[in-house]
């Protein structure tokens, strides 16, 4: 039988951060807030501690972890080379929601990198994450603090739902700011390649370095012949338990189609929910709606998306209809998560504009 751990849940104040630092030094597991999503931290240089992360999350062991640091000098111990491109990106976007892939040093165990010779590194800006890493005095490996396959947690209560009894401590620092995981950029080759879209967009990177490509394996529906360079991108993440369909087209087509399909499902006795925006809410009338944010500010949509996906599970709905969010600089990152949640199940208006994810 699995061991049940007495998980300490504490508000992230100085005393609890100190206690959490001690737990990390001893090889334990602590969940903590970052500006993107909550992370599940362990000593990145201790293979047993890293192995515990996989066990607690039920995560496949070939899916590597991101190592979190607070200062540039912590990087030197864990990577074997830093390209001029990486220097530019770090200078501009660290601390912040950007993870870079480097060649790893011998110090980093293969448990942390899922067997790879590269290591993912991020310098978070969230004050609690930073205090915790400083307190532990260690690079901290931290994937998102959810059970494998569930949406990433954007509040401490999401972490508790998934990991209570499986980890040593949860530091509650309130809701995160961004709500989507960091942009992952591979800087081991000639030109930077985005392996996972996030708050820092391709345009942001291009403005700095001229050219930047997206890993072809993450654009649109997964192609069985293309293997994503970020191993985690091959899993059906973020998935609510219900079936989900994304409806795309002009706003009138979208609301009419969703209303018609929902009416049919309801008549069959199914429990239906809609993921909509403030702009469209009224068009759905009596249907059960989750307003994810406003199209006037796409950051609100990023911020609330994972919380809405969790709410659908709590309400045990059978079918979710969602609008599409391809526009804007965050459209690629939002749609990457939404398409995975929907298992790439999309209904497109015939003759409508076919958006591009790149
Ligand atoms: O915002 C974030 O990045 C959050 C917070 C906690 O920092 N962390 C996070 O970690 O989202 P996780 O484990 O859920 O996602 C890590 C992703 C996975 O898709 C994994 O495959 C990829 O990073 N990754 C890690 N190391 C890699 C490597 N060496 N090469 C390619 N991809 C890597
Ligand atoms: Mg994750």
Keywords:
alpha/beta, 5-stranded parallel sheet, binds magnesium ion, 11-stranded mixed sheet, globular, binds threonylcarbamoyladenylate, 32% helix, 11 helices, 358 residues, 18% strand, 16 strands
SSE layout and pairings?
Elements: E1 8-11, H1 14-25, E2 30-32, E3 39-43, H2 47-57, E4 66-68, H3 72-78, H4 84-93, E5 98-103, H5 110-113, E6 118-122, H6 127-136, E7 140-141, H7 156-163, E8 169-172, E9 183-186, E10 193-196, H8 202-209, E11 213-214, E12 243-248, H9 251-267, E13 272-277, E14 289-293, H10 298-314, E15 319-322, H11 331-341, E16 346-348
Parallel strand pairs: 1-8, 2-8, 4-6, 5-9, 10-11, 12-15, 12-16, 13-14, 13-15
Antiparallel strand pairs: 2-3, 3-7, 4-7, 5-6, 9-10
Helix pairs in contact: 1-6, 10-11
Magnesium ion (MG) binds at residues 143-144, 152.
Provide an overview of this structure.
- The chain has 358 residues and is α/β, with parallel strands linked by helices.
- Helix content is 32%, strand content 18%.
- It has an 11-stranded mixed β-sheet with strand order 1-8-2-3-7-4-6-5-9-10-11, with helices on both faces.
- The longest helix is centred in the C-terminal third of the chain and has 17 residues, at 251-267.
- It is globular, with a radius of gyration of 20 Å.
- The site of threonylcarbamoyladenylate has 29 residues, from β5, β6 and β10.
């Amino acid at each position: 039988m699995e061991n049940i751990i007495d998980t300490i849940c504490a508000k992230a104040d100085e005393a609890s951060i100190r206690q959490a630092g001690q737990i990390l030094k001893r090889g334990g597991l602590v969940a903590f807030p970052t500006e993107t999503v909550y992370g599940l931290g362990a000593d990145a240089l201790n293979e047993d501690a890293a192995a515990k992360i996989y066990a607690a999350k039920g995560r496949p062991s070939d899916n590597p972890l991101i190592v979190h640091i607070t200062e540039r000098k912590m990087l030197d111990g864990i990577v074997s080379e830093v390209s001029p491109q990486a220097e530019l990106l770090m200078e501009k976007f660290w601390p912040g929601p950007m993870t870079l892939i480097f060649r790893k040093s011998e110090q980093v165990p293969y448990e942390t990198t899922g067997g790879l010779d590269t290591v993912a590194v991020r310098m978070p800006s969230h004050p609690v994450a930073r205090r915790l890493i400083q307190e532990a005095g260690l690079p901290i490996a931290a994937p998102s603090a959810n059970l494998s396959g569930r949406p990433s947690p954007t509040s401490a209560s999401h972490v508790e739902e998934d990991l209570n009894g499986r980890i040593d401590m949860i530091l509650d620092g309130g809701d995160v700011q961004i709500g989507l995981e960091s942009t992952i950029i591979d800087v081991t080759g000639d030109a930077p390649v985005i392996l996972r879209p996030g708050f820092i967009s391709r345009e942001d990177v291009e403005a700095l370095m001229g050219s930047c490509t997206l890993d072809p394996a993450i654009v649109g529906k997964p192609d069985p012949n293309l293997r994503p360079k970020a191993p985690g991108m091959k899993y059906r993440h973020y998935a609510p338990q219900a079936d989900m369909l994304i409806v795309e087209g002009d706003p009138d087509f979208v609301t009419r189609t969703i209303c018609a399909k929902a009416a049919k499902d309801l008549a069959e006795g199914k429990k239906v929910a809609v993921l909509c925006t403030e702009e469209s809410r009224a068009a759905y009338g009596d249907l059960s709606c989750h307003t994810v944010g406003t199209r006037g500010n796409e950051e609100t949509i990023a911020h609330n998306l994972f919380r809405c996906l969790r709410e659908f599970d709590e309400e045990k709905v059978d079918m979710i209809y969602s609008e599409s969010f391809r526009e804007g600089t965050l459209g690629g990152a939002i749609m990457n998560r939404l398409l995975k949640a929907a298992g790439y199940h999309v209904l497109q208006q015939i003759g409508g504009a076919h958006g591009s994810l790149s």
